[in-house]
């Protein structure tokens, strides 16, 4: 693949930013060249200002880097963004206008009519929207590619094979989302310990809309959203990492539990065909024990890049139900962006 490409990480000191720095350490195609933060950390050494919340210590090279202010010019051609929603949108658009290839976790551009919202195993063909994005916005080399919300991504990874094989008419999902999903320090411990908080602002709407874009198609008339009814309830639970989701589906045609399990377990997509460096060998891992998946046991399967499905069984109201679990800051955030960038590199968009 030739020389490694320099990348900048925006929001490098946060929960997702730290994951970027960790996952990009020793990456075969990308090299972290710039770390970007707010006034709070700008000008200081990353190792000094970053309250590292992951195992081990920050990679040595990153720890010695000076954090840049987000208004300073970015030199790297590729940008990974872990900026807070609301702040990200404008910063990312101006970087793309300067020619940067921007891969973002933030919500701001996900539903834009010319921006791919991508999971490479699900809708790699949506990359075609980049051409329209550039034409519409007058950008020559730059672009924005987004990855979904951390609950949506694991839900849709599990839905896609079933959508293709049987069709899905209705979906009900209840999430149990980890504390790290709220960033650091996130929800106060007094609010979360011994408790379940039955509301996460904006989360249900994101799951309900992003799913339709992801399962939909992209063509000359733009994005066509998938036609399914979906209802989400989102809760925050005292788990450190890993979002769990209880899902019930009404399928387009009847299928046995065995067929559903077989379709899920055998699913492979473009990243597996291409052997991308961050691709899990099995994007969906199916467990058959009646007490799996569990965050503490299953969130790091396939280096945190898989969705783990279990408890597949008939549903008394719809057709089938199951539980899906996935790591929220790896496949749900930084790992998802990196996989998108790997796909686009192979497809020539980073040349
Ligand atoms: N946590 C998760 O599971 C997921 C998060 N996301 C999304 O990823 C993004 C980052 O989330 P997360 O890491 O949890 O958030 P954090 O609150 O942990 O981190 C926010 C980061 O953004 C920087 N920042 C804050 N304000 C500004 C500003 N005004 N200008 C520039 N930089 C700023 C902070 O820098 P400094 O420390 O210097 O102040 C910090 O590096 C969000 O858009 C979030 O919605 C997406 C999927 C999952
Ligand atoms: N809201 C998610 C994390 C997040 O930031 O989502 P989004 O990127 O869609 O804003 C959670 O609480 O777990």
Automatic annotation (TrEMBL):
Pfam families: Semialdhyde_dh (PF01118), Semialdhyde_dhC (PF02774). Pathway: Amino-acid biosynthesis; L-threonine biosynthesis; L-threonine from L-aspartate: step 2/5; Amino-acid biosynthesis; L-methionine biosynthesis via de novo pathway; L-homoserine from L-aspartate: step 2/3. SMART domains: Semialdhyde_dh (SM00859). One of its GO terms (biological process) is threonine biosynthetic process. The active site is at residues 150, 243. Keywords: Amino-acid biosynthesis, Diaminopimelate biosynthesis, Lysine biosynthesis, Methionine biosynthesis, NADP, Oxidoreductase, Threonine biosynthesis. GO terms for molecular function: aspartate-semialdehyde dehydrogenase activity; NAD binding; NADP binding; protein dimerization activity. It is an enzyme of class 1 (oxidoreductase). Catalyzes the NADPH-dependent formation of L-aspartate-semialdehyde (L-ASA) by the reductive dephosphorylation of L-aspartyl-4-phosphate. Belongs to the aspartate-semialdehyde dehydrogenase family. This is aspartate-semialdehyde dehydrogenase. It comes from Sphaerobacter thermophilus (strain ATCC 49802 / DSM 20745 / KCCM 41009 / NCIMB 13125 / S 6022).
């Amino acid at each position: 693949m030739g020389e490694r490409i320099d990348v900048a990480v925006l929001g490098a000191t946060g929960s997702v930013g730290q994951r970027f720095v960790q996952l990009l350490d020793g990456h075969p195609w990308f090299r972290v060249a710039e770390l970007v933060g707010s006034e709070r950390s700008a000008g200081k050494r990353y190792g000094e200002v970053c309250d590292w919340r992951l195992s081990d210590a920050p990679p040595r090279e990153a720890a010695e880097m000076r954090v840049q202010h987000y208004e300073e010019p970015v030199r790297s051609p590729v940008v990974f963004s872990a900026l807070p929603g609301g702040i990200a949108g404008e910063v990312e658009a101006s970087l793309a206008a300067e020619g940067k290839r921007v891969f973002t976790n933030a919500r701001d551009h996900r539903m834009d009519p010319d921006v791919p919202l991508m999971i490479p195993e699900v809708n790699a063909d949506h990359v075609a929207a980049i051409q329209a994005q550039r034409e519409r916005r007058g950008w020559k080399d730059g672009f924005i590619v987004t990855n979904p919300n951390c609950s949506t991504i694991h839900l849709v990874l599990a839905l896609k094979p079933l959508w293709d094989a049987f069709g899905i008419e209705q979906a009900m999902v209840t999430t149990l989302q980890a504390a790290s999903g709220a960033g650091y320090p996130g929800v106060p411990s007094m609010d979360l310990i011994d408790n379940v908080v039955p509301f996460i602002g904006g989360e249900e709407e994101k799951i309900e809309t992003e799913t339709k874009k992801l399962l939909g198609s992209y063509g000359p008339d733009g994005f066509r959203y998938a036609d399914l009814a979906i209802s989400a309830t989102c809760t925050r639970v005292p788990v450190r990492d890993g979002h769990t989701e209880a899902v019930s589906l009404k399928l387009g045609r009847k299928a046995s539990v065995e067929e559903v399990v077989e379709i899920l377990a055998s699913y492979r997509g473009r990243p597996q065909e291409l052997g991308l460096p961050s691709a899990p060998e099995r994007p969906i891992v199916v467990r058959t024990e009646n007490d799996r998946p569990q965050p503490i046991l299953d969130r790091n399967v396939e280096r945190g890049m898989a969705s783990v499905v279990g408890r597949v069984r008939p549903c008394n109201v719809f057709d089938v139900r199951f539980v899906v679990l996935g790591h929220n800051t790896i496949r749900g955030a930084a790992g998802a962006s990196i996989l998108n960038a790997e796909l686009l590199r192979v497809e020539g968009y980073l040349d």
